[in-house]
Amino acid sequence: MDSAHAALTTPSATKGNAMTLRAKWTLGGIIAGGTAAALLGAGSSALALYFARRVLTPARVRPADQEILAVIREGRDLQVILAATPETTHNGVYSLFFEAGAGHARIGRILSYSPAERTVLREVEAVYSGNLETAGRGWWGGATYQHPSDVGLASEDVAIEVEGGTAPGWLIPGDADAGTWAIMVHGRGATRQECLRGARVVHELGLPNLLVSYRNDGLAPAAFDGRYGLGSTEWRDIDAAISFALSRGAREVVLFGWSMGGAICLQTADLSEHRHVIRAMVLDAPVIDWVNVLAHHAELNRIPSAVGRYGQLMMGHKVGRRLTGLAAPVDLKSMDWVSRAVELRTPTLIIHSVDDEYVPYEPSALLAEKNPEMVTFEPFEGARHAKEWNADPVRWEGLARAWLQQQLAPRRNPGQPDPGQPEPVQPA
C-alpha cells in the first residue's frame, strides 16, 4: 500500500494529474461553448422561422394603432381630432378604419396641427359605415372609397372562376366598343377597395375596369396552404381574371397593381398564357425585388441580417417550406426584376414615393434605369407607402392618363406615317 501511494505522488504523477485537470476544464469549456452555440443557433432558427411566417401568413386582425381623440359635429359636417403621427400629418385624402374594420371613414384635409400637443384636426369627408363618434382607435389607410358608387361610378358584381371556387369582382363598364380592359390588383393585406382610387382615370379613358380579389384576401377562396406566395401563386387568379375579360369581349388588357399587387402583375406578365394580350402595366409602389424588401423589414424589426437571410432561405427551400407551411417553395430569385430587367417586355409605368417606409423605391428606379425602353419611373415625395394618389390625386391621375393615352394610341405599321403629322407633298 505504501509503495503504491509513493508511486502516485512522484513528480511525474503529479504533473499528469495537473494535465488531466486542465483537460477536464478544456473539455468543459468546449461543451459549454457548443451548447451556447447550439442554443444561439436554435434561437436564430426560431427567429428566422417567425420572420418567414409573419411575411407569408395573412394577418387576420389589423392593429388599431391610431388614436381617435375626439369627433366634432357642426351641423351635418364632422371633424376629427387624431393623435399626430407621420401618417396623419400628411396632407391629402385618406381612410380611417375603426370598430375592428367594420367602420370606414374618408378623412380629408388638415384643418389645424398642434406639434406641442401632438394632435391634428382633420375634415371628415364621409363615413361609409360604423359610428366614428364612439370610436377610440383605428388604423390609417389609403383605401379612400368603399364602393364604386362612392366614386360616382356604376358597377356590376361579377364572379371569376379561380382555383378553389369563385372570386368576387367589381366590373365598372366602359365604352361599348372598347377592346382594351383594365384589371386592378390590390396589395398585401388590402382588398379591391384599394384600387378604387385609380378607377376614375380609367373610366375617363373609356376602358371597362375589373377590380378583382385573389387568394387569401378575405374575399376570394383561400389558398390550400393558407399562405401568401408573394406573387408566385396569386398571379394565377389574375390570369383567370384576364380569361374572364376575354370571354366578355376584351382583346387586350392593362394591369394596375399596388404594392404586392405590382409583384403579382409582373408575374402575370411573365408567366400567364395570356401575357401576349397585356398591353401595358401601371404599378404603384410595387415590389420589384422581394429580397430587398425582406432585408428592409428585417432591419426595421431589428432582426440580424443573417437571420433575415435564413428566413428567406426557409421560404425558398423544399425542406424549409414544411416549417413555414408553404405548399411549395417561393422562388424569390425569379421575382427579382432588377436582375431580370431586360426580360420585362411589357410597357410599364411605375409610380413610387421616395419616402416609402414599407417597400423601398430604389429597385423601381433601378429597373427603369436598366430598361428605359419599357419602364417609365415617376417618383413622388411625402406619400409614404402606396399612398401617392392620396397625397396628390391630380398629379397621379394626370400621369396615368397621359402615359396610358400614349400606350393605347393606335399602333402604326412599319412605314405608316404618324397620324399627327401632315401628309408629305408629292412632286407634280
Describe this structure in words.
With 428 residues, this protein is an alpha/beta fold. It folds into two domains: 66-141; 148-408, Alpha/Beta hydrolase fold, catalytic domain (Rossmann fold), CATH 3.40.50.1820. 33% of the residues lie in helices and 23% in strands. It contains eleven helices and 14 strands. It has helices at 2-8, 11-56, 199-204, 235-247, 260-271, 290-300, 305-316, 320-324, 362-370, 388-391, 393-408, and strands at 66-74, 77-83, 94-98, 103-114, 119-129, 137-141, 156-162, 165-172, 180-185, 209-211, 252-258, 278-284, 348-353, 375-380. The strands form two sheets. The protein has an eight-stranded mixed sheet with strand order 7-8-10-9-11-12-13-14, with helices on both faces. A six-stranded antiparallel barrel has the order 1-2-5-4-3-6. Helix 2 (11-56) packs across helix 7, helix 4 (235-247) packs across helix 5 (260-271) and helix 6 crosses helix 7 (305-316). Residues 1-19 and 23-40 have low confidence and may be disordered.
CATH fold call of the largest domain: Rossmann fold
Q: State the secondary-structure class.
A: alpha/beta
Overall mean pLDDT = 88
Count of extended strands: 14
Structurally, the number of domains stands at 2
